[in-house]
Amino acid sequence: VGAFMTGVQKTRLETSLNVSEIHIPGYRESKLPFILQDEDLVGESSENVLTALKEDSITSDDYTSQIPCESGHLLHKTKNQVFTSEECRAIVDEAERLAAEMGWTTNRHGNYPTTDIPLVELPNTMKFLRKSLVQTIYPLLRAQFADFLPPGEAPYNLRVADGFIVKYDAEGGQAELKPHRDGSVLSFNIALNPANEFEGGGTWFDSLGDAVKIDEGEMVSHASGVLHGGHAITTGKRYIVVAFVILEGYDSWSMRFYNNVRNL
Hints:
about 260 residues, alpha+beta, 8-stranded antiparallel β-sheet, 4-stranded antiparallel β-sheet, 6 helices, about 25% strand, globular
């Protein structure tokens, strides 16, 4: 989006491209709360601190892949939990406690709004997530998208720039999210409640013509530029954590990658 484009022109372009957000400059600030902080490790023994910072060893046996592109794939689904069931329940409980006080937001994402709560409003979840990003999620993304990320130290510049808890509710709430593209490099979502608590759901991908479903604690990750949506639930409630990931310091590469995959 050009620096001299008017707000109306920008909105029209975002809508025509099915992009939910194009605001990379804003990510320079929004990424900061997701960076691991010294206070995240306060109160832990030295042994636990080392464990918290040690990256998980990831192999291709840990996930399945779809949507082939060149020598890699643009969509991945973990075979096992990234978050435990107890961790998932704690996140949902914190979100619902806050929602009881301030309500769920419905207008944070202009073109494709979700019923959500920003992660930055959830201090316990944020502390947990910052550790999980370093230990599990970033290593997983580096392995899954190794065929696309620039070589050298670049893959270690992955940064969550925005994250939120989404609530789908078949009875009187938002039940689905229309097809769109995210305005980041990579996106992921993690299921926060068991799949038997709702019917339908999953992340729909235009390239597949179908939805990819995950159970509690499992994660779906994909190139942000591929057309996708939240498949409708018909009963129950579905909670997920959604995050947009950028590659810090590689804006030109990021735009090339986005444009290369957006029609797949």
